[in-house]
Automatic annotation (TrEMBL), chains A, B:
Domain of life from the UniProt record: Bacteria
Matches recorded under SUPFAM superfamilies: NAD(P)-binding Rossmann-fold domains
Taxonomic source organism: Sinomonas cellulolyticus
Family annotation (Pfam families): OCD_Mu_crystall
Protein name according to UniProt: Ornithine cyclodeaminase
């Protein structure tokens, strides 16, 4: 039997534990996995593009454990009452190939994306960063704000979104957490005085959410909304202002902001910074860009983390996903044995 | 909410309906999908190879529906009490990216593999075929025998396996279905007088289960055990004796028997035969080889079939896999709303 964390269990667990606490401790799992980056079997995710959106499978594995996530991206979904991104994920035992753990990952992806952003910013943003500008007040925004407050000690928040209802929702949700937000009327106003800029919009186009003239020295840009071929947020000139950091280069070349520049545009993979093999931030004036698209290893870390946290609690239930005949070669017998009682 | 068919439900449904009946009617779904082959988004499956075995994801989609299967292949599993192959699969709505259906597929894969073999043999084997030789008496063998009895009217069965316990299991299971089997002592003896030869062994090596000198004119070879790089069953000379038919050429070049021959070795995709675009069997003397590796479209058909058959019955239950906040941009609110009741 595999363990299963359904939506109700994930939501209740996240509320019980608190998103900020989860994000902070999930970073330990993320850093553990980024430090053993070379031990992972890595591949760009497998995307199925349609005129409505994209459905992706994101597998990765170590010598002992395998994981994958199913995730969709449908920017037109909210207008029809659906979420842009939904997801679920699985862990499996590499030794026998059996799935061991299944979990909803819509909520979990929101937590892991915020945790990844905060982990990277902790190493790349100026240590004295106090002001976070958020462009985009959608699904990911609250998780980002809480992550940066908890992990980097951000105390001042600014937001800009074309959707005023989304902005109001964001302000309301954060106010309940004792976070005050300055609502602005443009991207330019939003990033005034910001130490860190997070772009998290969902348009599936080459949008220019942020232009180079708005970027001042020393800023860390956390670009998470551009994550698909043809879906970017930054004016390409921004990429030349400083140093660009990525998760897994082959996937980011396809999906990230750097799809707008030459295929040999220099980037640094974050795990190299974490291991001290490549420099991260080298001066207070340096502009750093995390061109984040979301990589399978992050989902693997998030799944491992939840699996360990809910083990033995009521948040996990058993799911009957894998047939287990007494004689492993007698699968037919399993079917035959079920027949007489019904005839 | 998505619909879910767990192992118990799948086994009970298969027993209730009967494997032969399921295989026969699943072929209608398979043929429907093979006929619209060009409408599918196709890619070779994504395999994660380890020293223990392989874990694969097999996605495909039409303009309306997406499906994928998770499946492992661990030839050393039975010796440790586990099955060689286990699987589960998912259907999703391409329009919003939401999963709609989750099912165990260990049992279902056994049924769809047998259904695919029978569908292809119905078009490629001699219409007067009466004798089936099965090399390999493992998990797939009973499903193959029942499929060929039902769909092609095979009346005489011969088997050979190095594992006598597996052979005894096969004989016992088939006897309960009124099928008598001739147990033989070698591959050579097994294929004597056979009109159709099915090879379904599980060794993850370039084994030579069948040699060219054993192949008589007019035989149809249903080669289903060679389905991984480095895992083949046929002496390569056999491929030159007649015409080779495949599911999806790019995947079969990687995984099938034809990995043993030149990358431009001529093959025919089965859907072309089904649509009358390419010849299948053209004479009673012709030797035909179905170099089957199992392709995502077959799992898509099998999932569609089960989904339609169990809709509204007790065999399907609801599973809480996708978070559905009232405001699709307010995922955080879903977590926040769960908090007060527990504080």
């Amino acid at each position: 039997m595999a363990q299963f964390v359904d939506v109700r269990a994930m939501v209740t667990w996240a509320a019980d534990r608190g998103p900020e606490e989860i994000i902070a401790s999930m970073i330990d799992y993320l850093e553990e996995d980024f430090r053993r980056w070379e031990a992972f079997d890595k591949t760009p995710r497998v995307a199925s593009h349609t005129r409505f959106g994209v459905i992706e499978l994101m597998p990765t594995s170590t010598e002992d454990e395998y994981g994958f996530k199913y995730v969709n991206g449908h920017p037109s979904n909210p207008a029809r009452g659906y979420q842009t991104v939904t997801a679920f994920g699985v862990l499996a035992d590499v030794h026998n190939g059996y799935p061991t753990f299944l979990a909803e990952m819509t909520v979990l992806t929101a937590l892991r994306t915020a945790a990844t952003s905060a982990m990277v910013a902790k190493h790349l943003a100026r240590p004295d960063s106090k002001v976070l500008a958020l462009i985009g007040a959608g699904t990911q925004s609250e998780f980002q704000a809480l992550a940066f407050r908890r992990v980097l000690g951000i105390s001042s928040f600014r937001v800009w979104d074309t959707d005023t209802a989304a902005t109001e929702k964001f302000v309301r949700n954060l106010a309940a957490n004792g976070v005050e937000i300055v609502v602005t009327d443009s991207a330019a106003e939003c990033v005034e005085g910001a130490d860190i800029i997070t772009t998290c919009t969902a348009d599936k186009t080459n949008a220019t959410i942020l232009t180079a003239d708005l970027i001042r020295a020393g800023v860390h840009i956390n670009a998470i909304g551009g994550d698909c071929p043809g879906k970017t947020e930054l004016e390409p000139e921004i990429l030349g202002l400083g140093d660009v950091f990525v998760e897994y280069t082959p996937q980011t070349r396809i999906e990230g902001e750097i799809q707008q520049v030459a295929p040999d545009f220099p980037v640094t993979e974050f795990w190299e910074v974490l291991l001290g093999r490549r420099p991260g931030r080298t001066s207070p004036e340096q502009i750093t860009v995390f061109d984040s698209v979301g990589f399978a290893v992050e989902d693997f870390s998030a799944l491992r983390y939840v699996r360990d946290m809910v083990a033995g609690t009521d948040f996990a239930e058993e799911i009957d996903l894998i047939a287990a005949p007494e004689d492993p070669k007698d699968l037919y017998g399993l079917v035959a044995a079920a027949a007489p009682a019904r005839l």
